[in-house]
Design a protein that fits this description.
The protein is 47% helix and 16% strand. The protein is of the alpha/beta class and 207 residues long. It has a single domain, classed as Rossmann fold (3-Layer(aba) Sandwich). Helix 1 crosses helix 10 and helix 4 packs across helix 6. The chain starts with a strand and ends with a helix.
Length: 207
């Protein structure tokens, strides 16, 4: 089983959206996935409560129970375990980073968001883990923003994932309905983005 941690010390970066979309995309590709929700607000678990489908499994836990949660996912036959974390939660972020095979840091492309990556990058460095920034909610045709974002991220010694996610209504509408964008709008642009991000992630994790 591979373990993916999704970290950002800044709120509103899109951690839960990314976690749930990747988990559901993994399930669609035949890779059973468990999501461990370390956020006290339990947004991922709340989404699961509204979802008619049985998968992916979503379990809310305090970070002190993370090791037991990961072990339960492994014993349950998960191929991938995704850890969703809260902002401004140093203990949970460090526990998730240490447990992970790979860390993804979702980030909007605004300068304030990019400057806030530093705190999260420190956790990754202390844990000694590989990490990528996933640029999220990009406006259409924003190549100049993308280039500026890559330069800002490079300061922290972290690469930007080759797949970015644009600002699309399908992401929000889908989660409200207990779905993800590929389920809500099959064949749409958001579905293409998530499939591409999943395929890249699988290659990085050798999954």
């Amino acid at each position: 089983m591979k373990i993916l941690a999704i970290l950002s010390q800044k709120g509103g970066a899109g951690k839960t959206t990314l976690a749930l979309h990747l988990a559901t995309a993994a399930e669609a590709a035949g890779k059973p996935c468990a999501v461990i929700d370390l956020d006290p607000q339990a947004s991922a678990a709340g989404w699961k409560d509204t979802r008619p489908a049985e998968t992916p499994v979503v379990v809310p836990l305090p970070h002190s129970r993370l090791t037991a949660g990961v072990q339960a996912a492994r014993e349950g036959g998960a191929s991938l375990c995704i850890i969703d974390t809260a902002p401004h939660a140093e203990g949970a972020a460090m526990a998730a980073a240490r447990a992970a095979d790979l860390v993804l840091i979702p980030c909007r492309a605004g300068i304030l968001d990019l400057r806030a990556i530093g705190a999260t990058a420190d956790f990754v460095k202390i844990a000694g883990k590989r990490a990528f920034v996933v640029l999220n909610a990009l406006p259409p045709r924003a190549s100049h923003i993308l280039n500026d974002a890559r330069e800002a991220v490079a300061v922290h010694g972290i690469d930007v994932a080759p797949v970015t996610l644009q600002q699309r209504a399908a992401y929000g509408h889908a989660l409200t309905a207990g779905q993800t964008a590929p389920e809500y709008e099959p064949g749409g642009k958001a579905a293409e983005e998530i499939a591409a991000l999943r395929d890249w992630l699988f290659a990085e994790l050798q999954l």
